[in-house]
Amino acid sequence: MAAPKQLPFSLPPPEGGAVDVLFVAAEHSGDQHAARAVRELRALRPNARVCAVGGPALATAGAQLLLDLTAHSALGFAAVIKIPFFRRLIGDIVRWVGEHRPKVVCFVDSSGLNLRIAKALYARGFTAKAGGPTRALYLISPQIWASRAGRRFAMAAHLDGLATIFPFEAKCYADTNLPVTFVGHPFVAPEHVRPVCYDPAGPILLLPGSRKGAVARIFPALLDAFLWYRNDGGDRDAVVLYPSEKILGALQAAKPPANVRLVRAGEGADALGASAVLTSSGTMSLECALAGIPGAVVYRTDPVTYLIGRWIVKVPYLGIANLLLGEAMYPEYIQGAATPARLAAQLTAALGDPARIEQTQKQAAQLRSLLSQPAVGSVGEWLARHLD
Question: Taking the model in full, what pTM does it have?
Answer without folding.
Answer: 0.80
